[in-house]
């Protein structure tokens, strides 16, 4: 799959400016991703999907993002949607994948409102930041339903054709993801297409047919988001390093940036930050793969540590990019250079709620000092 992803890089580079203008993936990119099986990464094998491991998902995201962070993000978010769909009832899975193993997803866990109705839910809400909304076949999103006087969080699977898309995606970064708002009003969802949200926070060994479904959702979902960050970081490092031997160091006597010891030190620092982030990401992915293969659950302290390390890795990438654009200078922000896009996209992606470092540190820190308090329902 990584070789297939690498084979798409030329097209992605050619189309990236179109994605910026359209504020969604260009059709040519979406079709190429479909043709190369990128939408089947975490589709269950029983539906002719690839059902790859976490390490492979990371590699694919990283490779695609060297050319286009938005395309990489769209593939990762779609993979998470496929994984979620694989948690629903067999009837729901057959409805989605039986006719289309390449089913594409959009969605959000931000809860809308729901009320119980005979054998299902009646839902309403607006779900912002639904990446890939324009090309989606299905959606997976959160709702809160009142049950017996208590609130219950659930996920719903709904055909994308039953929802309205509001074009609200106006940002300076990750423009090509098309992360618009999905809207539903008084929409009926049958019970077989609903899932208790609490099931996603804890993984029950042997409860699923596919090895990949033995992983805790939040750990897998947020970890794979690091793939696009790592790819953009690598692209930025390669860009700056390649030009250092021909670009003068402004306001100095150095005819080339590469002659400056100060610049050499800064490049080394950035490279090591990126390598540190990559080591964390792939070590965690390998650990999740091993646990799933051995049918071992990841306990709460383990999941808390993963959450903290994910945020730490994301921060390392952001800090490395800050160094790299400073090294390259004000020219980093010219619209004609890809470096400004790496910087914009990575800085926005790293602000995703699942990647925020401080929250992760608090969650992990509480386990280190024995504080029995959970501040997130999804860890």
Tell me what the structure shows.
The chain has twelve helices and seven strands. With about 375 residues, it is of the alpha+beta class. The protein folds into three domains: about 1-95, Acyl-CoA dehydrogenase/oxidase, N-terminal domain (Butyryl-Coa Dehydrogenase, subunit A, domain 1, Orthogonal Bundle); about 105-195, Beta Barrel (Butyryl-CoA Dehydrogenase, subunit A, domain 2); about 210-370, Up-down Bundle (Butyryl-CoA Dehydrogenase, subunit A, domain 3). The radius of gyration is 21 Å and the shape is globular. The chain starts with a helix and ends in an 11-residue tail after the last helix. Mean pLDDT is about 95; it is low at about 205.
- What's the arrangement of strands in the largest beta sheet? 5-6-2-1-3-4-7
CATH top level class name of the largest domain: Mainly Alpha
**% residues in beta strands:** 15-25%
Number of domains: 3
The unreliable regions are 203-207
Give the ordered list of helices and strands.
HHHHHHEEEEEEEHHHHHH
């Amino acid at each position: 799959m990584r070789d297939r992803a690498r084979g798409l890089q030329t097209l992605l580079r050619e189309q990236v400016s179109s994605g910026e203008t359209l504020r969604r993936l260009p059709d040519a990119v979406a079709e190429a991703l479909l043709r190369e099986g990128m939408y089947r990464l975490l589709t269950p094998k029983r539906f002719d999907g690839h059902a790859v491991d976490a390490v492979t998902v990371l590699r694919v995201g990283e490779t695609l993002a060297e050319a286009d962070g938005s395309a990489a993000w769209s593939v990762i978010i779609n993979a998470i949607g496929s994984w979620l769909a694989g948690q629903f009832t067999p009837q729901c899975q057959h409805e989605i994948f039986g006719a289309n193993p390449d089913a594409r997803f959009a969605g959000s866990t931000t809860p809308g409102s729901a009320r119980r109705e005979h054998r299902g839910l009646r839902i309403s809400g607006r779900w912002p930041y639904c990446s890939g909304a324009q090309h989606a076949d299905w959606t997976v999103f959160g709702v809160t339903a009142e049950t017996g006087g208590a609130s219950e969080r659930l996920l719903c699977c709904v055909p994308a054709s039953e929802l309205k898309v509001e074009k609200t995606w106006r940002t300076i970064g990750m423009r090509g993801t098309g992360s618009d708002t999905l809207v539903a009003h008084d929409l009926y969802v049958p019970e077989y297409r609903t899932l208790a949200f609490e099931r996603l926070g804890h993984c029950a060994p042997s409860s699923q047919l596919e090895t990949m479904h033995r992983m805790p959702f939040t750990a897998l979902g947020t970890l794979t988001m690091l793939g696009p960050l790592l790819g953009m970081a690598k692209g930025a490092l390669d860009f700056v390093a390649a030009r250092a031997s021909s670009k003068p160091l402004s306001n100095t006597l150095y005819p080339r940036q590469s002659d400056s010891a100060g610049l050499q030190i800064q490049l080394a620092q950035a490279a090591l930050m990126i390598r540190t982030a990559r080591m964390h990401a792939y070590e965690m992915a390998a650990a999740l793969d091993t646990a799933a293969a051995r049918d071992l659950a990841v306990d709460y302290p383990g999941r808390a540590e993963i959450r903290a390390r994910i945020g730490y890795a994301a921060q390392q990438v952001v800090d490395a990019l800050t160094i790299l654009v400073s090294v390259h200078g004000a020219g980093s922000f010219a619209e004609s250079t890809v470096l400004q896009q790496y910087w914009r996209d990575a800085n926005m992606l790293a602000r995703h709620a699942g990647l925020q470092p401080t929250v992760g540190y608090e969650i992990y820190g509480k386990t280190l000092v024995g504080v029995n308090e959970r501040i997130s329902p999804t860890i």
